Amino acid sequence: MRNIIATSALPYANGDIHLGHLVEYLQTDFWTRFQKMRGNKCLYICADDTHGTPIMIRARQEGITPEELIAASHNRHSKDFEDFQVVFDNYSSTNSEHNKEICLGIFDALEKGGHVHSADIDQYYCESCEMFLPDRFIKGTCPKCNSPEQYGDSCDECGTTYSPTDVKDAHCTICQSAPVLKKSSHVFVKLADFQDFLEEWIPAHTPAGEAKKLLDWFKEGLRDWDISRDEPYFGFEIPGYPGKYFYVWVDAPIGYIGSTKEWCERNGKEIRSFWNDETTEIYHNIGKDIFRFHALFWPTMLKAAGYKTPNEIFVHGFLTVNGEKMSKSKGTFIKARTYLDHLDPAYLRFYYACKLDPSTDDIDLNLEDFAQRVNSDLVGKITNLASRGAQMLHKKIDGQLGELDDDGKALLAMTQDKGELIAEYFEKRYLSKALTEIRGIADEANRYFDSKEPWKTIKTDPESTRQVLTSVLNVFRVLAIYLKPILPEYTAAVEELFNESPYSWDSSKDVLTNRPINAYKYLAQRIDQKDIEKMVKDTKADLKAEKELVAVKKNEYLPEINIDDFSKVDLRAAIILEAEDVKGASKLLRIKVDMGNNETRQIFAGIKAAYKPEDLVGKMVVVVANLKPRKMKFGISEGMIIAAGPGEKDIFVLSPDAGTKPGMEIH
Ligand SMILES: [Zn+2]
Ligand SMILES: [Zn+2]
Prior knowledge:
- By secondary structure, the chain is α+β, with helices and mostly antiparallel strands.
- 43% of the residues lie in helices and 20% in strands.
């Protein structure tokens, strides 16, 4: 029996779980459930990643404490995982006393080993927010391609990475003001002290392609790792460095140990001896985007503090939907909860399993293929064996299994013989290959069933028909056992059908004969394409609601101006004399206003969706009188009418109170 600790990367408490995250949680859940079925001791450990500037800022914007924010996230994440049938042996938070203790212990070891030093660095500081700005809180124009509004560390348009000081017209994303460079003392870990160890460790414990890319870096020599952030920061303060906090990527992976410690306390074990036990195997499942943190910094911390380093780091690719990056506007940035509102989690578990292997290639959720594969394979091929077999046995005979006929025996023996091969695929994370075997067996079982034509023989020879149904149901039962790590609730229903206790992997070696089975209950039904459409529609609606929420909450203002700037704008009261549609312009109205002193002007206003022309005539409005006239396709627009609202139907023209005369200045 093996002792295994398996982890998934900790989801950040700043957002909801989506289908991209679920690739990893489901992959790890399949693997850990498989290990448990094989009789191994296996813990699936995870936690919420709760620290850092984004959490602090978000809490501030919502008017709550960071602790309240992360507690709410913890509840939402836990519920999403539970409903997706992901079972953790411990699910904790990085903001726990357990984690803090381990974190301080590791830092202490780094310091005592002489691997820590501090140095001054120049960093952008926002004077109005009174804080140092992380790269993601700086935006500006890309120094390479000049795209505006790019993050401080990289450009989404051209893919260049750079330092925030290279960004043109850099500004704080919270308050829009320009940051200043300010000196601050930071704490560093001397990675170079671990270079020899890492050069040996990385290729032996991580995927070859990723390892090579990382080791290419080593040629220039390893730079020190900055592990501190200045206050205000939500995290753990560094002992001996007042006002300095551990960077979130220090205490996030330590959360693996912190969470395991919680489990140890519940189970009468001591964390260090449990983690370091020579029989303990440790595996981390991560996405390729966070490889560097797990293959470089994490083993360094573990090594320095005398903790066992992981046996292996399993790395997977990203999820694409319909062949593209998940997109909010296309409705493919689907949250776990939105999926659950419309579809059975078993479908996604099955589909991901069909696609997963140990490679770091991206996996694609093609929504059409998803429905098709679930309907044809899970429902049409596999479940069909049970529904046809069990229903006939119950309705046409007496619900009793008999013996197997010779063909049935051969079919079942073949199915059972595949058990070790399928187990090997699970072990090595070739889920797609395991599923191919399972589908192949289901195909053969369906062929066997059809060739025996039990729907005909049931009238003439019920006893030989009983043998056919007994054979088919035994094969189905073994398939359900192989599928149990992927479809735990489905298989639980199969256990009930056959009146058996929970299956282990070895239950597949049994043959059920001469005993009653329970009446067949629904196991899986076909996906209705309409449910997928509803899920995509809800995802789009979700995005819209989110945008509105942000717009209301953030109250982001334009950069400050002084009174002289304001007085440059000449606002005047004016009365609308005429308003009419403009041919060929779907959004515009042509408006004639009286500006007072016998002056009239023509203004084109984009308010057609909100106002009927006849309702505007006679209305007193506010006009920007000194706006440079604009030549349009339909004529010249000589000013602008002031209105509130985001656009389309939500436009509200401002109107001065009664008594105002055309031409009056507005101050
Ligand atoms: Zn660029
Ligand atoms: Zn600011």
